[in-house]
Amino acid sequence: MLHYAVVFFIIAIVAAILGFGGIAAGAAGIAKVLFFVFLILAVITFLRRA
Predict the structure, then answer these.
(1) CB-based contacts of 23: which residues, under 8 Å, 6+ apart?
(2) Which residue among 3, 28, 33, 40 is buried most deeply as judged by most CB within 10 Å?
(3) Could you state, in order of their start, the residue ranges of all structural domains in the chain?
């Protein structure tokens, strides 16, 4: 999950450098959602093992 968030973040950076603002914003939004889903799942996993 974190891997996909990093991939979308890199896509957003490249799109922003090339001037594709809409694509960059979309990819950054997806990366943000995936990162928060990763954080929630990681916290749940750590709490279940404790």
Answers:
(1) 11, 12, 15
(2) 28
(3) 2-49
